[in-house]
Amino acid sequence: MRAALAALLLTFLPLLAHAEPVEELKLLAEHPVDGMVGGNLSGLALCGDRLWTESDRDDGLIYRLDVSEPVWKAEQLAIDVPPPPADTGLPLMLRATAHAASVIRGGILDFEGITCDGAGNRYLVSEGYAAVLKVPVEGKPSWLKIDPAIIREAHAQGMLRRFNAIFEGLTINAAGDHLWLAAERQNRGVLSVYRQPGGTWGCHGTCILLNEGGEEMQPAQLPGAHKAARDFSDLALYNGKLYTLERNIFQICRRNLQTALKEHCWSFADEALIPQRQYAQKYGLAEALVVDATGAWVGVDNNDWTRADGEARPIVWRFAAPRGGWDVAP
Questions:
Q1: Backbone angles phi, psi at 181, to 5 degrees
Q2: Alpha carbon of 137 to those of 79, 122, 141, 199, 288: distances in Å?
């Protein structure tokens, strides 16, 4: 037995010795955000040259960010949200639980992501209803007509089964006719839906690109690091690739657009977890992601928690693009 174990170690130790560590991203700037009524910044979108955000506690507001000063100002835009669809495919018990929780914390719709198409139309995903709201540049907001069978199938395959772990992010292509949705955790996954003739949204082949459970070890920089559920907290689309914000392991990962399979990851743990930036939480709080040619914006939903340095406002970080750019080979 000992001889067999020694032989096994000799086989795999060279591979471990040559494993490349995950590259750490460099923090360029940190911006507290003032002016969000409910706090809880839970998404970011770049529309042209303007950043937008939303809160999972504010059902009737989105925010344009004034970035002219180091402390950013959230400028309110009221939106007239119509009643959500009667049937989105999400089980009634999960919708009822979200409704009950909103009585205490606010935000029955629980908006958890925002994205923009090339025309500047904004889209928000409701975790409370597993639905997507379109906020056009001109005209009234409306809910996308996503086939409820898609949500039911995802639920049947192990996703969208837990309260507060439904959809946590979304991104859309410039044409505004192809949408990706991130199921948060237990199981996490990526769904892909297309606009169909007549305005409904459905699948081209399969809608479920990725479905996975399990746990991953948190970074050693986090006090009390432990294995935590694999999760997604936002999605971004850049240069023909999908990017996932993986909150519990403090990483941004590039993924194949057609399969959502992981190609390469970068860590932001070194910068996010210096002592003064830490929260008294066992999990990551990054919930918003935008990727562009020169870097990434990462938004932190502090969830009313105060950092070790006393900062109690939502935060947006700017990280430089990795060495060699985001297109570095796997």
A1: -125, 140
A2: 11, 8, 9, 18, 22
Q: Where are the domains of the chain?
A: 23-320
171 vs 113: CA distance, rounded Å: 8
- Match domain 23-320 to its CATH number in 3.30.1050, 3.10.620, 3.30.70, 2.120.10: 2.120.10
Both tokens assigned to 85: 């669809």
Strand partners of residue 295:
292, 320
User: pTM value?
Assistant: 0.92
d(Cα 244, Cα 196) in Å, to the nearest integer? 26
Q: Mind listing the pLDDT tens digit for each residue in 291-302?
A: 999 999 999 999
Asked whether the beta carbons of 164 and 42 are under 8 A apart, the reply is no
Residue 104: band (very low, low, confident or very high) from pLDDT cuts 50, 70, 90: low
